[in-house]
Specification:
This protein is α+β, with helices and mostly antiparallel strands and 125 residues long. It has one helix and eight strands.
Amino acid sequence: MFLKSKERRLQKRYIVCWDASVEAVFPDFQGQIRVKVLNFSTKGALLHSEQVSIDNRHLFISAEKPDLNLKIFLPDMVLESKIDIRWYRLSDEKKLYEIGIGFVNFMERNRGAVDKLIKFLEKDK
């Protein structure tokens, strides 16, 4: 017997396919990885990445956690936000990491651009 699980998210998620990068700033090193944004809301997103480490430094399993910043590259703008990684897993079928992230102070920094983007995504459905 299968039970249908209840959606727990309060914010609507939009299916997208955007290029982005995650910059990781460690106390003595910084670097970045390329990612794809697969779904997006004002509170968080789902990313796909081929890697979860930079120069042998793991992004979220390390003695000192780095500050993480996501840049989403859109045709008309670049959205930027600090992020927290909420979960991750290796997708065997896709051979990629799926990474669930939460935005930190995202709307405070990007309200006008995000409102415009959400209107576009709603219209594009």
